[in-house]
Amino acid sequence: MINLKNQKNLRGTLIFLLALISVTALGAGYGFMTDPSGHQVGFTVAYLQFSPFKDFFWPGLILFLAIGLFSALTLFATIAGWQKYPQLIFYCGVVLCGWILIQIMLVRDFNLLHLMCLIIGVAFMASARRIMSR
């Protein structure tokens, strides 16, 4: 059972993580869309050599919409205390983990950022399940 103080702490942590994921995904996605070469974000198209993409525009658009905007909407729903916010957080975790796992397979790379995003995605899912079970 989750008490009120723990629930507020958990919600605050989730708000912080949603803001972090949203801001970074929106920024990186925008950077990839405006400079598909990836240089603006610190990448080169060589990173995509095993993927079906020739540049970063489409991955940037997907990142911007699926991770950035969805996390931002979930952030606002969580702050507002919308009744279904735990479900949105759960789905954010699913989308984030799916995005990272597909990215790992396509680019054939695994780094600390991937690990951190996977941990955050799993934390979203576990936390949302905990809130929903109260």
SSE layout and pairing:
Layout (H helix, E strand, L loop, with lengths): L3 H31 L22 H24 L4 H23 L4 H21 L2
Helix pairs in contact: 1-2, 1-4, 2-3, 3-4
What does this structure look like?
This protein is mostly helical and 134 residues long. The chain has one domain. Helices cover 74% and strands 0% of the residues. The protein is built from four helices and no strands. The protein starts with a helix and ends with a helix. The model has no long low-confidence stretch (mean pLDDT 96).
Sum this structure up briefly:
The protein is an all-alpha fold and 134 residues long.
Averaging pLDDT over every residue, what do you get?
Answer: 96
Query: N-to-C terminal Cα separation, in Å?
Result: 6 Å
What's the total count of β strands?
0
Helicity range: over 70%
Supply the helix-strand structural class. mainly alpha
Largest sheet: none
What series of H and E elements makes up the topology? HHHH
Q: Report the principal-axis shape.
A: elongated
Output the number of helix runs.
Answer: 4
| Spans of at least 5 consecutive residues with low confidence | none
Q: Please, how many domains? A: 1
Computed CA radius of gyration, to the nearest angstrom: 16 Å
- The fraction of residues in strands falls at under 5%
Give the key terms.
134 residues; mainly alpha; 0% strand; elongated; 4 helices
